[in-house]
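Recap for those who missed Tuesday's class. We walked through two folding examples back to back. For each one, the amino acid string is listed first and its predicted structure tokens come directly after. Nothing is annotated here on purpose, so try labeling regions yourself before you check the end of the notes.
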Amino acid sequence: MLLSAPLLSKASFFGSLVNKCRQVIKNQPTKSSKINDLQTNNIIDLQSSNTLTATQPVTISIPSTDRPAANFASSAASSNRTLEEKLGIPPRPKKPLTPYFRFMKEQRPKILAENPKISTVDIVRMVSKRWNDADAALKKRLQDDYQRDQHQFVEIRAKYEAKLTDEQRAELKQLKKDIQDAKDRRMIRKRIKELGRPKRPASAFLRFLTQERTNSPQTPKQTYREWHQWCTEKWSRLSDKEKEVFMAESRKDMELYKTEIAQWEEKMVRLGNIDVVRQGNLIEAPEPRLKGIKE
């Protein structure tokens, strides 16, 4: 394990470098634009930054469907928006690119001109090699440009922060918390899946729904919502005896599930994976007190 740690660190660093490169490529202006002028204007003038952001829409074409979970395009567009955009707050000024990524921004068009079919990963490798071989004068120029823009960015950010109201700050803080909580839940679900947690059995109604998909499938003229509503109404009309068939299967599988989940959680506690165990099972029951004995 100790020998693999440096390799893991390098892989993580290279992965983050590729992601940053993709961000730079995504925001790369057209050839007819003046790169240095746009970079300076982005930092100096918030109005100009807003214009640049508005001219880069994200368009996703998704075929229409009547299923409830089919609104993927709107969710994808929403995820690409900044926190400020989601709250209707003026966009936060962007940090200037570091000297290395300024160098990448200059070198990428040259590399693509020489190798039109080159991949993003290979671009990162070539830029890294060219950066190591770059002369000190070039690096100093890029560093000076970065320091100049950084000073201007600090001033603009201070003015931006001063214009935010207490209500807007509170909304931003809450939204960041909500996003982090959602991220933590996704990570927990991923860990639970990787650790092989037993799956909770389907309820009686879901078993009935599965049967109806075979016996009475959705028709071409029927939306999923309409079909689901029809199944719900049919389920409500079933007698207790008819429902008992599905409920008995559900109870049987639930008893087996309780045994499996208890064994799995006990194993997780022994392995130290406390975060995937239900919190109620981590609380030990208090010891019984004997009558007539005072503490």
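Example two. Treat it independently of the first, because the proteins are unrelated.
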Amino acid sequence: MPLHYEKDGDIAVFTIENGSVNPTTPAMHKELFLALKDFLADPAIRCGIITGAGERGFCAGDDIKTPYHKGDTARGELGNHLWPHSGEGETPHDFAWSRDVLGLERFKPIIGAVNGWCLGQGMIYLLALTDIRIASTRAKFGFPEIAYGMGGAGGTSRLGLQLPHTVAMWMLLTGDAMDAEEALSHRLVNKIVAPESLMDEARQVAAKIARHPPEAVRIEMEAYYRGRELSKEDALAFTKHLYRLQRMGLREELVQPERFLYRQN
């Protein structure tokens, strides 16, 4: 399968595997959606890693050569857009499943491990599905779609929330790719490592996260992501509610702090 999903202890790994630069197809978006649903529902899995197979690409975006069903008429195409999975059967006929992926509510951490090209839809997924990012020295990031008359990635990815305005606009309007060093300078990634060390580094970070109580990780992520969309007052109230619920649920352990010490060693 073009998307390989495996569980290793308390860590799950999503590997995009579709040729030299790993472009995505309609079927792959559906596979990713179903794998993410399983990942989010499995209490034994504490953290995820998403990466691309091979040396040339994390994901070069949607394969624009992939044929997809637009509808025989304008009305038919509109219907496919408004009801994207109607009548598709087991084989997706367009890229609509990517909307389902981006619409998932996710409060379980995923680490991006990027080697080679990360472009277009691959970049959108990196921004939306990962919380910590490790890049190899060969990583390159970009949105080249504008050169093909397909603008709009800035809205889908909400790029301006993760990069300074002028940096985001340069990337979106010129179509130029950003190398790993520049990505690090803008904090688009957390760390750069040699390609051969990429997955080891990602697994080490995942292990650090997985050692913590899952309730604390879940609540920290929800407080952070929902809080970004709230006013100062609402964010404070929401976080206090989550924190108090957490204390109630973990009261026995909180009065015995020595039970947590092993996690810090």
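Answers for example two:
The beta strands are 3-8, 11-16, 47-52, 57-59, 110-114, 117-119, 132-136, 140-142, 178-179, 191-193.
The longest helix spans residues 232-249.
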